[in-house]
Predict the 3D structure of the following.
Amino acid sequence: MQKVFTNIGKLYQVREPNSKILRGTMMSDVPFIENAWLSTKDGLIEDFGTMDGFSADGQAEIIDLNGAMVTPTFVDSHTHLVFAADRDEEFVMKIKGMDYQAIAQAGGGIVNSARRLQGTPIEVLLESARQRVTEAIKAGTGALEIKSGYGLTLEAEIKMLQVVAHLKQEFPIPIKATFLGAHAFPHSDHEKYMNTLLQEMLPEVYSQKLASYIDCFCEEGYFTTEQMCQLLEAGEKYELKPKVHVNQFNAIGGVQKAIEFGAISVDHLEVLPDEEITLLKDSDTIPVGLPGCSFFINIPFTPARRIIENGLPLVLASDFNPGSAPSFNMSMINSLATMKMKLLPEEAFNATTYNAAFALELENEVGSITKGKRANFIVSKPNRVLNSIAYNFGVDWIKAVYIGGDLV
């Protein structure tokens, strides 16, 4: 059925089909229409324009928005949404002065989540993940990625990805799955675990068609650059594109190798030397910052200002996970981006909507108000403008979320 939303105060992120990713100074521009209308049909954006030229179709359902702002929903390109339990006890350890690495060495961190998940039935994991996706949608997310990586055994990694497969079937938003078996080493025999990843996990992920991407935590104390290359090379054979964790604490060459393998994105980048910015400028690999993680575990923020000033695109994501970023709220990511990364509200918004769609290869489906894209959009509460998203940090500015043109 056709629906027409009228009397929109400002309709933001209006773009033409097949527009390119935004780079450098382009990121400060968010096109909008004032006093607008928007029509949807069969789950897609059908048309839009100004109220001056609007004439009602007698067959359409008319929804008067009374001057509210409308934006596309957020796109969250990096999450670890499937897990067995929160790690709030580690939060207290952090308050007492332990850093991320010290908590991991004390038995916390990724391996802690893996122990809990391995013994949790798939039905329990699925139900908790359903609740998180539902809450994320209500908070304005209209597309997301979910990684494995809290299994660290063949059975548990497959179980996680099967949960994601169920979510993809149940929810009306695009969900992409990423295989992150290389999240941490579950035991001291690293060669044995590498063999498990390469010879057991990857073939099974491919056999069941459970993922689109492959990821690796390339970092000191985790996976070396050489091990990452082994994994990405194997991923190519199993039709998995790279989206990798690099440079969270140290720059050890992961960015260069990820670019060589044609990675869709390199995520974290809290440490980013000038020479690696130069490498990114000569590639199609997208830099992704995760400000929620930096905020929560008190590490430097990705140098977003420097990335943009060098003419690169930028994407921001939540990194939602139970240990280092326990929030999926993309409005808060906009706030952190402006306050801590010195981005303009327009730059932060572009990094969490339009550009973010490219980091999931969903640029033809979501991320902007464009004819033919999914009708996934947010209706604001009264008297909100684009600046409000970042300015009113922690305040719910959303009145309604529509997915496929239907009210959530």
In short: The longest helix spans residues 190-207.
